[in-house]
Amino acid sequence: MLRKILKWTGGIIGVLVALILIFYFTMYMMVNNRKSKTYNVEVRMIDIPSDSASVAEGAHIYATKGCADCHGDDLSGKIFIDDDALGKLSAANLTFGKGGRPGNYSDREWLMAMRHGLKANGKPLLVMPSYEFYKMSDHDLANLIAYLKSVPSVDHELPKPKLGPLGIVLSGLGKLPLIPAEKIDHQYKPGEVVKRGPTREYGQYLSMSCTGCHQPHLKGGPNPVPGGTPARDITAAGNVGKWSLSQFTAVLRSGKTPDGRQLKNEDMPWKMTANYTDEELQALYLYLKTL
């Protein structure tokens, strides 16, 4: 009797192991196919300025888009996930130093990355949240690229991205935003300039930077980084609906809520939003209050 039970138990375990291996192999092949896909897109070229005013404006956009959180203040890149199960993922060195952009890196390649989430050969970039950038106006994106091209070179070589077993499974299930090109409308044509001012319309434009964590509807949801704190609802149904403009501004400048809680920057990047101008914060507040 005992032998029969052990035989049945061993059989069940064997079947489960086989199913797990089949599932993992399926996820592995699916992710590899998505990573190796070639996208054929039409890159609409725009003029990239080089004057000091445009570069300064681009530096402000870099600061307010949260680029430094991954690429660093000096743009030399850094490892942001280093976990045996998840894998090792890093943000690229965006300078022209060793390990960074080659000297002949063209404006077309900048636009491929920012507007389409793609490398020069049409293969997808990994993790880079281009879906937060592709709707930027030509004016703003041109100034951002102008700034990226102007920074001093830094020698910093980073490891190639590598997914661990959990990272493969989460990517296959769509729980890890691995391939930004899949979330982009590659036919979208932004306007040349967005009118700035303390308006709902300008706030809607600025809210693109919030959609990566808070979802396109800004109602929040699971953190895109496994194990991270879930993103909150930032529409009028959440805390924003209870806060005054001055309270909202204080939270995004200091990370301290009206009830005295100190937000962790890794949960809510207030060190990024602290760079917003008063006009930008007012516009964003007006827009979020209408949702």
UniProtKB/TrEMBL annotation:
Protein name: C-type cytochrome
UniProt keyword terms in alphabetical order: Heme, Iron, Membrane, Metal-binding, Transmembrane, Transmembrane helix
Pfam families in UniProt: Cytochrom_C (PF00034)
Residue ranges of the TM segments: 12-31
Record bears the keyword Zinc-finger: no
Natural source organism: Chitinophaga chungangae
Domain Cytochrome c: from-to ranges: 53-152, 186-291
PROSITE patterns assigned: CYTC
Superkingdom, natural source: Bacteria
